[in-house]
Amino acid sequence: MKMKLLIAGLLTSLMMAGSALAMDSAAIEKHMAKINDNYSKNVEKEGKVKALEEKVEELEEMIQMMLDDEDA
Question: How many Å apart are CA 54 and CA 62, to the nearest integer?
Answer without folding.
Answer: 12
